[in-house]
Amino acid sequence: MAKRIKDSRLRRKLRRFPEKLRSNIAIVMELSAQELAAELEAAAPKESGDLSEAVHYRVSRDGLSAQIGYANYPGFKRQWKAGGFKALWIEYGTKFKPAQPFIGPAFRAKLRTILDRIDRTVATTLRRASSGDF
Predict the structure, then answer these.
(1) Helix axes 85-92, 103-131, angle to 10 degrees
(2) Domain that holds residue 92
(3) pLDDT tens across 64-76, in order?
(4) Entry pTM
């Protein structure tokens, strides 16, 4: 996904498109982020429940990218403290506890579906832009 969506030339061109054309991509990014966040919530170990509550996502202002997970960035500090750091220890294990991967498997389970959906939407948007149908 990173290679397809972060292609700087494509992103620059898509940003120049009218908002009406880009809105479909923004909607698909929002849906995909919600879907992956829900998958992470379902896959998170339920020992204390704080990992499920700490999963969050954010779609960029232009709607062309999304971040999902336990990242530490402004506005999500409480969620990070609640589960983000703990998620790393559970995912990779510690000296005393074996690894219980859940982030990687959840990501891989949804990756193909999300990439196909984004690719179809970008292709449709580019087709509409080239035909002048906006």
Answers:
(1) 110
(2) 2-8+18-121
(3) 888 888 765 555 5
(4) 0.78
